[in-house]
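Re: that backbone. Tokens:
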């Protein structure tokens, strides 16, 4: 049984705790300075403390999961380094903080997995991409990271940390693109004559249903699109606009993702 300590019981941390609390395979502890959030975590039957100094003496940490604001990550790694077991794993779900920064703050070689989640993780439908350092190459570390993080969504792995900028641009920032698409889709419905409430309902449910069908179907998105599109029909008329060579949706998305990727690189520096 591993001792897993979560630092930060906000929305992301609490979403993980809610699922973790249902298993007896590991022992979980939460550290959260905010009293209301700490009380909420304790309500799941998990020990919750205000600071690492309150952890029981000699209580070694097998897995440290950091779910704080990015600017706090370095301090968290430094403060908890003395509590880490010799073969401990550190998992950070804070955006933008690189593995080298965490390694430097630890003051010694330590297995680290940098994870990039997105906001739907708060309802268990996130996309979490993990990148391990060389010390975390052991399959056991990847296995426990996937086990813990799958509590809030689907988990994927990349071995090259440079890809995390592209991951940030696609899945990390991606929910905002979809939210804006829903805004624009709904506004188009209003322009077409629908009232605002109905237009928003149609936009939300259509996006949700289409995404769920794309995930559950054995057909590719391209095939699913073709199945909806009758020759010279209404869908084809709309797709002629959305799939235009110069100013179509594909080129717009390429530009948007590239802009987010470049900004992620800048912030990382």
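Recovered sequence:
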């Amino acid at each position: 049984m591993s001792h897993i300590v979560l630092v930060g019981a906000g929305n992301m941390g609490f979403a993980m705790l809610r699922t973790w609390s249902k298993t007896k395979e590991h022992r979980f502890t939460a550290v959260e300075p905010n009293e209301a959030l700490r009380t909420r975590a304790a309500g799941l039957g998990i020990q919750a403390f205000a600071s690492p100094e309150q952890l029981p003496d000699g209580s070694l940490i097998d897995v440290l999961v950091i779910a704080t604001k990015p600017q706090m990550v370095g301090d968290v790694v430094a403060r908890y380094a003395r509590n880490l077991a010799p073969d401990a794993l550190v998992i950070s779900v804070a955006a933008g903080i690189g593995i080298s920064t965490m390694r430097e703050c630890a003051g010694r070689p330590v297995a680290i997995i940098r994870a990039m989640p997105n906001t739907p993780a708060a309802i268990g439908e996130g996309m979490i991409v993990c990148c391990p350092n060389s010390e975390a190459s052991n399959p056991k570390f990847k296995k426990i990271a996937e086990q813990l993080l799958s509590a809030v969504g689907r988990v994927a792995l990349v071995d090259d940390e440079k890809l995390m900028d592209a991951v940030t641009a696609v899945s990390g920032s991606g929910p905002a693109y979809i939210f804006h698409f829903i805004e624009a889709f709904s506004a188009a419905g209003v322009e077409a004559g629908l009232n605002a409430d109905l237009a928003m309902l149609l936009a939300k449910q259509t996006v949700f249903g289409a995404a769920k069908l794309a995930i559950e179907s054995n057909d590719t998105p391209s095939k699913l699109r073709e199945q909806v599109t009758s020759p010279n029909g209404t869908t084809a008329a709309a797709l002629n606009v959305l799939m235009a060579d110069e100013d179509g949706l594909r080129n717009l998305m390429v530009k948007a993702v590239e802009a987010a990727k470049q900004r992620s690189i800048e912030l990382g520096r």
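Residues 3-160 form a domain with the Rossmann fold fold (CATH 3.40.50.720). Residues 196-216 form the longest helix (21 residues).
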